[in-house]
Amino acid sequence: MARILITSAIPYINGIKHLGNLVGSQLPADLYARYARARGHEVMFICATDEHGTPAELAAAKAGQPVAEFCAEMHVVQADLAQRFGLSFDHFGRSSSPQNHALTQHFAGALADQGLIEEVSEKQVYSNADGRFLPDRYIEGTCPNCGYDKARGDQCENCTKQLDPTDLIDPRSAVSGSTDLEVRETKHLYLRQSALKDDLDSWISAKTDWPILTTSIAKKWLHDGDGLRDRGITRDLDWGVPVKRGDADWPGMEGKVFYVWFDAPIEYIAATREWADATGRPDADWQRWWRTDKGADDVRYVQFMGKDNVPFHTLSFPATIMGSNEPWKLVDYIKSFNFLNYDGGQFSTSQGRGIFMDQALSILPADYWRWWLLSHAPENSDAEFTWDNFQTSVNKDLADVLGNFVSRVTKFCRAKFGEQVPAGGDNTDAETALIARLQSHLISYQNHMDAIEVRKSAAELRAIWVAGNEYLQTAEPWAVFKTDPERAAACVRLSLNLIRLYAVLSAPFIPDAAARMLSAMNTLDTDWPVDIKTALSALPAGHEFSVPEVLFAKITDDQNADWSNRFAGTRD
Ligand SMILES: [Zn+2]
Hints:
Blueprint: E1 3-8, H1 19-24, H2 26-38, E2 42-49, H3 54-62, H4 67-84, E3 91-94, H5 98-113, E4 117-127, E5 132-133, E6 139-142, E7 151-152, E8 169-173, E9 181-191, H6 197-205, H7 212-223, E10 231-232, E11 234-235, E12 244-245, E13 248-249, E14 257-258, H8 260-278, H9 283-290, E15 299-306, H10 310-324, E16 333-337, E17 340-342, E18 345-346, H11 357-363, H12 366-375, E19 383-385, H13 387-416, H14 429-450, H15 454-475, H16 477-480, H17 485-506, H18 511-520, H19 532-535, H20 557-566
Parallel strand pairs: 1-2, 1-15, 2-3, 15-16, 17-19
Antiparallel strand pairs: 4-5, 4-9, 6-7, 6-8, 9-10, 11-14, 12-13, 17-18
Helix pairs in contact: 3-4, 5-8, 5-10, 6-7, 7-10, 8-9, 8-10, 13-15, 13-17, 14-15, 15-17, 17-18
The chain binds zinc ion.
Zinc ion binds next to loops.
């Protein structure tokens, strides 16, 4: 038994996430967590909401709420959706927690003690009407390049030209629209990432088993252009973790907060502490996951994220940990994902294009989505959601293959033998061949899951379902029953056991359906199989079961057409 720490990139607070976000981190992390638990490992699975930064402030202002209240409400919304999608976090924390405040301030202090924090004077735009400094992207004006009148201070959305706020013609505040702006001097703290470049480089070079997507992005940021740059860790904002050096005030930094990129990954640690605090456990219980001097040496730490988050997790967060010179756990494996596109374009939160988590659950149960998203996970390249592909995949894999097997076996047994596992008959060559085939698929399935090869794992699971269907098709218990009921009984007994086995193996992908299958089979035996033959005799003759409701309904052409229209455009 191993100890596995799993974190999913933490979703930003300002709105409901779309399915592309879900499949890029939280969902595959859940798949792996469920699998690892099923194999008997001790798992700590952590996620949280990422609550600081200007976008949260602006979203709160738009909603007419104080930002703390807005974040508290949105956290509940996201936690509820995560739970309904079956995301089995041990704790779903909040980056605005007191635990994260304390840890973020602690890390900043430790980095300063190591000489890795530098004070830098900068010129930044200040809005007199708003009484605050404005980040570049919250200054709007006319693009000097193309004349677009809603260009942002960092980039023109129309012609994509990179800009400085001072390039804009007629600049104004995106917060209030005020043109009463001036450039002021302000001091910020920078993390001297460049001083850690060689340490980071050799650490990443040693990770030969990481996905190429992960290491190639990290190496690009390390070596392209001027190489790894120092990075500001503070902002002139109200909402965030106040800048402190550990417990002490930081002279000259009054009224400033840490930059959201700095405090967000520290929340992985803080959320584990939140878990311990919320469940009345001592500090040792969270520290044994994170402190290598307190037991975390034998922890395997795996992170899940979309490719846009790779630089922070391969460079900035490790720089924080290494630079602290304290014995914190570094990540062992980073599983990163490409993007999921939506029906010929991109998912867009701002335009409401694509399917969002709440909408998805309003039309179909979570398992339909979990299966499609995981079996089409954007691992080696970007992937695309289309309604036709979704319909085909659900109807074939879930309804025709898995659902149909469960329905046929249980209904046939009820009709001919009653609702209990039938006695009589012995295994023949057909069963021996099936068992050998399943044993080989099981080994492949485990190997792919251990390697976190999500698509390959899904394909192998599907092959396991297909093997049962093909066996049933060849063995034909409904035909054999007329002449040799004992033979039919042996076939049905094995097939009912196969339903239990399918439930156990499928649970990481489709936990609700797996639970319904187990419930129909009237068993709490969820032991992961070692030997297929033994596993297929778990339910003995005479064991009672019931015929479940239809596991998966087919998606009709009308539904397909209706839904593709409904989600093509702007979300209300
Ligand atoms: Zn432009």
